[in-house]
Amino acid sequence: MMMAKKLLALLLCVLTLLTGVCPLSSSKRFVKAGEMVVLQCPQDTLNHHGDTELIWTRYTTQEMFVANNTASLEQWNMDVLVYGRSLVILSASVTHQGNYSCSLGNASNQHWFTLTVYSKQSRKYNEKIEDLTTCYTQEFCKLKCPHIKIPHITSNGITWFKEGESLPKEGYFSSVEKSDSGVYTCTRAYLYQGQIYNITLRVKLDVKSKGQSVIISPHNGDVFYVDLGSTLVIDCKAVMYTDFDEIFWLSNTSFVETNDSLPVFYNSTWEGNPDHIKMTASLIFKKVSEEDLLKCYTCKLESASEFPRFATITLSQKSHPVSLTPTLSIVGILVVIAVTVIVCVKFKIDIASFLRDTLGFRRGDSDGKCYDTFLMH
Ligand SMILES: *[C@@H]1O[C@H](CO)[C@@H](O)[C@H](O)[C@H]1NC(C)=O
Ligand SMILES: *[C@@H]1O[C@H](CO)[C@@H](O)[C@H](O)[C@H]1NC(C)=O
Ligand SMILES: *[C@@H]1O[C@H](CO)[C@@H](O)[C@H](O)[C@H]1NC(C)=O
Ligand SMILES: *[C@@H]1O[C@H](CO)[C@@H](O)[C@H](O)[C@H]1NC(C)=O
Ligand SMILES: *[C@@H]1O[C@H](CO)[C@@H](O)[C@H](O)[C@H]1NC(C)=O
Ligand SMILES: *[C@@H]1O[C@H](CO)[C@@H](O)[C@H](O)[C@H]1NC(C)=O
Ligand SMILES: *[C@@H]1O[C@H](CO)[C@@H](O)[C@H](O)[C@H]1NC(C)=O
User: Fold this and answer.
1) Complete edge-to-edge strand list for the sheet that includes strand 296-302
2) Nearest Cα to 244, choosing from 273, 266, 213?
3) How many angstroms is it from 234 CA to the middle of ligand 5?
4) Residue-wise DSSP of 39-96
5) CA of 282, closest atom in ligand 6
6) Which domains are delineated in the chain?
7) Which residues, judged by CB distance below 6 Å to any ligand atom, belong to the binding site of ligand 1?
8) Closest ligand 5 atom number to CA of residue 260
9) Average pLDDT of every residue of the chain
10) Whole-angstrom Cα distance, residue 215 to residue 238?
11) Residue 198 CA, ligand 4 centroid: distance in Å
12) How far is the CA of 131 from the centre of ligand 7 (A)?
């Protein structure tokens, strides 16, 4: 049904283009008694003739009033002004209720307004939502009160209320929460001839929570195998959702510096995306030393909105096969094979249980000492 109506409207507009005769376009307005109303005649781009005058017509059940300027509005016998393309009702009352139209010249191109005025106490009053603002939790958030520009009438400030609450609000939040979501009303005050007139508009605030910042790599407990004296770079990669989050490196419990003249330092890069930031903090060892192997390294993600997250890693020296001259090594290998075969055959069971005991024992012992220490800080 809606679709059919839209198609019809479209068809009529195409017709307009062809014939220059525009069908009725219309809008509905609902306001509370006492509010100021501004009916703005849509800008006509199709057939604008500079010399033709804007004519307002008001229809009541008994009569039709036509006005082509503010002076001629006097016959309407109401507090109504015309400025440019706007018809302004300073303080709406039930008598203003009805149909209005504006047209350029004589009736070729009309726009209709149906105005409904509710009493101040009416619960039926349900003006449409003018604007939607989306903000993210823990961030600065500003509500937008749609601007209505009326020539010769001075804007005189905005008052905010949240629907269902009686105390005025500020139009912004330094750190917005999910509970701040909802419908707000903004009342724009206008000063005209020493009197204040109000226009109240409804806007909706939707507060969403962003994804949680995380460290992608390395994983807590990772061990990096290195050669002493070599250069080592360990990238800590994180995905973050606010500018306030950051990652940095700790060595045991002290901060690693970013000064690249030090033997161990880190540097970082950012990559901004529409909804998240990728940050990489590279821990750089110019020459891995014995001392470096004794420390724990922690990449820490510090976030304004969440608990800090971290990944602690350790370094371990790579094991190398002992290098021997080729002939010696061949002889050595043969001897080792021979001895192994003999020993294996002779002490099969003893070796099996020895291996199980020692390896099994060592595994259980070497877990997580570093991060336990770190966690306590
Ligand atoms: C405005 O309307 C009055 C009658 O209401 C008419 O005499 C006058 O010529 C009109 N002015 C123009 C510019 O059309
Ligand atoms: C306004 O127009 C609507 C249809 O567009 C009509 O039903 C209604 O009776 C009109 N009201 C007045 C007061 O003329
Ligand atoms: C529109 O203008 C034409 C002449 O320009 C006139 O004959 C006609 O009566 C006018 N119609 C209305 C509704 O005023
Ligand atoms: C205009 O709005 C303000 C703030 O909401 C209110 O105090 C004042 O009474 C209103 N004035 C009128 C004329 O409605
Ligand atoms: C970096 O470290 C070197 C050596 O410790 C020092 O001389 C220099 O002042 C430091 N630079 C900065 C910017 O801290
Ligand atoms: C980080 O420092 C290393 C070593 O000085 C350098 O090669 C690399 O380009 C630096 N990266 C950034 C992003 O500055
Ligand atoms: C760093 O922590 C480890 C494990 O807690 C400890 O063995 C080592 O001595 C510490 N090193 C330094 C320089 O504090």
Assistant:
1) 223-226, 309-317, 296-302, 246-251, 254-255
2) 213
3) 22
4) EEPPP--SS--TTPPEEEEEE-SS-EEEESSTGGGGGG-SSEEEETTEEEESS--GGG
5) 1
6) 2-123 (2.60.40.10), 129-208 (2.60.40.10), 214-317 (2.60.40.10)
7) 53, 68, 72
8) 1
9) 78
10) 4
11) 6
12) 58
Bridge-based pairing of strands 64-67 and 54-59 is antiparallel
Q: Which two tokens stand for residue 260?
A: 């690249």
And the tokens for 243? 């500018």
Digit-coded pLDDT (tens) for 329-344: 665 566 666 666 565 5
| pTM of the complete model | 0.51
Going by alpha carbons, the residue nearest to atom 14 of ligand 6 is: 267
pLDDT in tens, 40-61: 888 754 455 555 567 888 887 6
Name the closest-CA residue to atom 8, ligand 1: 68
- Reported as a pLDDT band with limits 50, 70 and 90, residue 23 is very low
Sheet containing 154-162, strands listed edge to edge, beginning at the edge strand earlier in sequence:
129-136, 195-208, 182-192, 154-162, 168-169
